[in-house]
Amino acid sequence: MGPGSIARHRPTLGIAVLCLLAGAMPLEGQGLRDALSDLFRFGSGDDPLFLAGSAGLPETEVHGDHFIPDQVEGNGAVLAFFTNALAVNVSSFPLPSTVSSETFRFVNGVPTPTSNSFGPITAERAQTVGRGRLNAGVNYSSLAFRRLRGVNLDDIRLTFIHSNVDFPNCDDVFQGDCTESGTPQFENDVIDLVVDLDLRAEVYAFYATFGLTDHIDIGFAIPVVNLELDGLSRASITTSTGSSADHFFGGTPDNPVLQSESSVRESATGLGDVAVRLKARLTDNPAWNIGILGELRVPTGREEDLLGTGNVNAKGVAIVSGLFDAFSPHANVGFEYRGGDLDQNELELVVGFDHLLADWVTVAADLLGAFKIGESMLDFPEPGQIQTPFPRTIPRTNLPDRRDDILDAALGFKFRTGGGLVLITNVLVALNDGGLRSAVTPTFGLEYLF
């Protein structure tokens, strides 16, 4: 955000652990999703885009409600699209893969390694952790959301048009056809908003994988999320009625206040959506192996605070991985069912490799894609149409009407210490402009095999 933004205090790992143990504690006041609506409230009144200045004077009080979304379908579509686009994207936090840094199977009662490298970081490999073995870890990811569909979050532009006013004898009073937008003349007034958002998330993910057999693993991942929203909106009314205004935030018709600002600063900390996983290795080949993974995300995160989706999501993944001395390529193809009314199902593709550089370090690189299936459930706002005094089209937003497909690249390292603890570092880089994106997402983690 611009100058004057207040520095944020970051939660410690201890705070995150306490939140995990205590459960998701409700916050005082409104949720983050409702807080977004505050960016569209100027002055008194509970409704977004209510004009307290116009409503405060007898001669203009009728004009105070002329932009309220509940009464102007197009304006409601603009607000719904904007808030839903943020909510749908922000609550799908990344979780660590099920991969253990070491994998085993029992041969004549002796655990025998089935991999050379420490494995991928953002992808899956077919090998399982081994019967009776437990791999547990924690990682931390920092997301600074900067762009929505390629548009900077500090320059989101939204335009709201006037309701179409009509009443008995309206045609006679205003000497025109009141069924057309633009008659009366004051229907040509518009409100332009510039929204400046700073949206950040910190995700602490606690995870574990246990080997039920040499071929089947069961695991879970529990995210603890801190989400911070800092927003400022600047509104400007463009009038069309000459020196005397009908729509204004304050003042009088002859001396109107036509600009106003609204700000919001909210945060939430709690559980995200917990994931339960089951992985099976289907083949036992020294070079190539095939596996499958099933994942269920349960709605444990508070939807009103954007910490969770509020719906059950499920994913199935087919895994192919190879083992050629120190080099291990892998590929994943998955389908994710997303249960929300506004969510689209996804086809997920991952291709990459992990390579043992030395007996204590592995490098892992991946190309990751998530491609939406079917038509978007987010209703993109249609341009506004004004017929008089001349026909024209009013764009509603500078956000483009495009798909929210995701393409990322990941590069990371795993370091094994002398005590057997594995240190993980990774960076995820956005390669396209789909959805709500953090340009760079660093991740740091620790894991240990018992």
End-to-end Cα distance: 45 Å
Q: What structural category do the secondary elements indicate?
A: mainly beta
Q: What is CATH's topology name?
A: Porin
- Please tell me what the overall shape is: elongated
What characterizes the major β-sheet?
12 strands, antiparallel, barrel
Radius of gyration (CA) equals 27 Å
Q: Which CATH class applies here?
A: Mainly Beta
- Count of extended strands: 22
Q: Which ranges are low-confidence, i.e. pLDDT below 50, for 5 or more consecutive residues? A: 1-28
Oligomer: single chain
Under the CATH scheme, which architecture would be assigned?
Beta Barrel
Share of residues in helices: under 10%
Mean pLDDT: 88
Whole-number tally of structural domains: 1
* Number of H/I helices: 5
Strand order of the largest sheet: 3-6-7-11-12-13-14-15-16-19-20-22
Summary, kept brief:
With 450 residues, this protein is mostly beta strands. Helices cover 10% and strands 44% of the residues.
